């Protein structure tokens, strides 16, 4: 019992430290940010790039509730950035079934994911890389269920609202920039749904950081030096 209490206290301390670092980072970025994205806005919007092996993973896990997350999901809501890897989310209780399904489809387990992310890394015979992320948070089942009706390029994709919350809580630099990019292009309705998820599952500090990321994303959408340019060299 004592060990459980100590572990719980340590988890809370780590989360508090993470929130503090996130706030410092957002304060710094907000101070230095200027209008404009540094690229031609809309040039890549709407492009859905699906690799054949991603569909193979989807078929291997078809009997297990799952959802696409990571860069592939982010690309559905913001101008795509190059990625060859795939992050697939399952509920923690499904880890053994998911692992068995991947092994049956000739995927090889190569290790556990590091840091705060729980899950495992996998490779196929052609060297494709898959991260199987295990979620045990209260919102996980709800998010994965919602993804089944949110198929993008045929893949069940984490809805924007839950993806924003997931990345906000991860708190890594790349995740926070992803949140800003997605919210900068989200409709008011999408933004409100994401706000409701953060408000329900997070705390006041999480919501304050969410609002800061909304402002940062919208500032990026304001006209900058490259807005409206032809994209051709001078």
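Sequence proposed for the structure above (234 residues):
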């Amino acid at each position: 019992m004592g060990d459980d209490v100590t572990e719980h206290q340590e988890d809370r301390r780590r989360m508090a430290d993470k929130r503090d670092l996130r706030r410092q980072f957002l304060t710094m970025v907000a101070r230095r940010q200027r209008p404009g994205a540094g690229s031609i806005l809309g040039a890549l919007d709407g492009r859905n790039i699906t690799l054949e092996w991603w569909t193979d993973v989807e078929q291997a896990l078809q009997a297990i509730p799952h959802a696409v997350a990571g860069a592939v999901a982010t690309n559905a809501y913001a101008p795509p950035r190059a990625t060859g890897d795939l992050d697939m989310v399952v509920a923690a209780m499904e880890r053994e079934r998911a692992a068995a399904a991947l092994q049956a489809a000739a995927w090889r387990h190569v290790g556990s994911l590091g840091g705060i992310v729980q899950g495992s890394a996998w490779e196929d015979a052609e060297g494709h890389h898959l991260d199987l992320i295990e979620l045990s948070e209260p919102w996980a089942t709800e998010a994965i269920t919602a993804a089944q009706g949110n198929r993008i390029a045929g893949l069940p994709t984490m809805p924007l609202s839950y993806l924003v919350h997931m990345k906000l809580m991860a708190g890594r630099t790349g995740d926070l920039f992803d949140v800003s990019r997605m919210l900068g292009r989200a409709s008011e309705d999408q933004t409100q749904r994401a706000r409701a998820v953060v408000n329900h599952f997070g705390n006041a500090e999480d919501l304050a950081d969410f609002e800061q990321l909304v402002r940062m994303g919208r500032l990026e959408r304001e006209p900058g030096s490259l807005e409206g340019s032809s994209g051709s060299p001078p």
